[in-house]
Amino acid sequence: MRILITGATGLIGSSLTQRLLSLSHSITVLTRDVQRAREGFGEQVSYWSTLQDQTSLDGFDAVINLAGEPIADKRWSKAQKERLCHSRWDLTERLAALINAGSSPPGVLISGSAAGYYGDQGQAVVTEDEAPHDEFTHQLCQRWESLALQAQSDATRVCLLRTGVVLASKGGALAKMLPPFRLGLGGPIGNGRQYLPWIHLDDMVNGILYLLEHATLQGPFNMVAPYPVHNEQFAAQLANVLDRPAFLRVPAFAMRLLMGEAAVLVLGGQRAVPKRLEEAGFGFRFLELEQALDDVINQRNDKR
């Protein structure tokens, strides 16, 4: 396949791009930093720095859209919220317009979203049919998805990736959690009862490939492992894998002081399950959290 990828230098995108290259696909990467992308992928891929000169995306078999400003790196000021939204919305809208402008458009657009689409759902089991709680993360993701769905037609199917916390040996949320836990200073956040939907990076990449290869699949997919855990369980299992204690609970008020409104990312959660992905026949490699954590932390240690 000839595939256009945005967000290829990110946590998911870099692993996905390398996998697609190993499968002999022809890859074009859209990136603002061509030099950085070239350092990662060399001359195996083609590089675009802009879509400005494009009149359509004819000639591509698929578009995989993973670009977006990291959501948890900064406090949510009004300006930061606008950056978070427009880094996703503007590019997605442009991709959809280019797909629609063609006479022979890509057969599939696989576009990013997040489990945050549902907002804070408390203890309820969350399938793709769950009604969302109307808060900022939902508003961001709902608009992001609706723009992607503008590309849908008889010629182009659209798959939406409602992704949980991606566990990887390098980067992502786990990289931020590990230092205090390695020092024995980790523990639950708030009351610890909020659910954390997670997925191993390998399963995330495999899931995207599954959607790419199965032409009947479209619509939203919860890209999460089948068994989400409470924050308290996550802390305990991470500490266990590291052979460290995990008794220093972080009070909710401290997270609100530190993160402001963005604290909902760690004080709230979704008990999201991958109903549609499993119904489609996808098989997860990493079903249990401890198995996934053990794998990614051992990979990290092996690379030291």
From TrEMBL:
Belongs to the NAD(P)-dependent epimerase/dehydratase family. SDR39U1 subfamily. SUPFAM superfamilies: NAD(P)-binding Rossmann-fold domains. It holds the Pfam family Epimerase. Residues 3-215 form the NAD-dependent epimerase/dehydratase domain. CDD domains: SDR_a8. InterPro entries: DUF1731 (IPR013549), Epimerase_deHydtase (IPR001509), NAD(P)-bd_dom_sf (IPR036291), SDR39U1 (IPR010099). This is TIGR01777 family protein.
